[in-house]
Amino acid sequence: MTRCTPADVERLTGRTVVAELGGHPPCFELDGGATVVVKDGSGDPGSIPAEAAGLRWLAVPGGPAVPPVFGHDHDLLVSGHVTSGGPTAAAAEDLGRRLAALHAAGADAFGAAPPGGPEQAWIGHTGMRNTPHDGPWGAWFAADRVLPYLRTARDRGDLSTGDAALVERVCDRIGELAGPDEPPARLHGDLWSGNVLWAADGAARLIDPAAHGGHRESDLAMLALFGLPHLDTVLAAYDEAAPLADGWTERVPLHQLFPLLVHTVLFGGGYARRAVLACEWLSRL
């Protein structure tokens, strides 16, 4: 990790730092009154260019607010600081409608990176490949999202051979489990509750994206994985703005397979058990 200095911020933004505010990650006040936060991605090479491209791509009219990008290089990202507030039902309803608008903005293909974003991206502290796929969503999701992490988890011993085979059988059936065909959606890609900040102005802001073209149900399933305040309100507003296909609730475990296996790779076996339970549920469908 490198220590970010005011000179770094001025170099990346072209603005003058008028105050060093401290904190972790560090915050600075720029001329004109903007407060920015600096993220150090030197431990995950390539993650900062991917995140900067993702934030810019997610800033669509009518979509959820994201911090503006003030500047970046390979290791440091300077973005707008979010002043914390608290979740409210009104903010959750607004978030649901705005997520529908974000997803409707679309992507060139399943697996497509944001414009200017690298093929080798990141989710958390592990790699994620963004390669456009011209086939159906399920085939891409199995090949580029589920199976690479499954193999890593199996080879490290986090999943038994039998449990890995169960996941593979779900992948073999993914065409029938995936539901109706949908066009590629513009995804945040790592939309767990910790990446939804409830700001002081009453609006939710999305941070730390792993943005790519995918299925809109994947973002919604991620919101449910670790619990989000007023989640039912978010989902109801989303469904009203952009009705979800019949059976979408039964497909939540399918869409959660990717983040569960990512967490297995990052943190170990407890998440492996949750992935196996999801596949046991899917095997009964």
TrEMBL record:
SUPFAM superfamilies: Protein kinase-like (PK-like). Belongs to the fructosamine kinase family. Keywords: Kinase, Transferase. The keyword Ion transport does not apply. This is Fructosamine-3-kinase. It holds the Pfam family Fructosamin_kin. It comes from the Bacteria. GO terms for molecular function: kinase activity. The keyword Kinase applies.
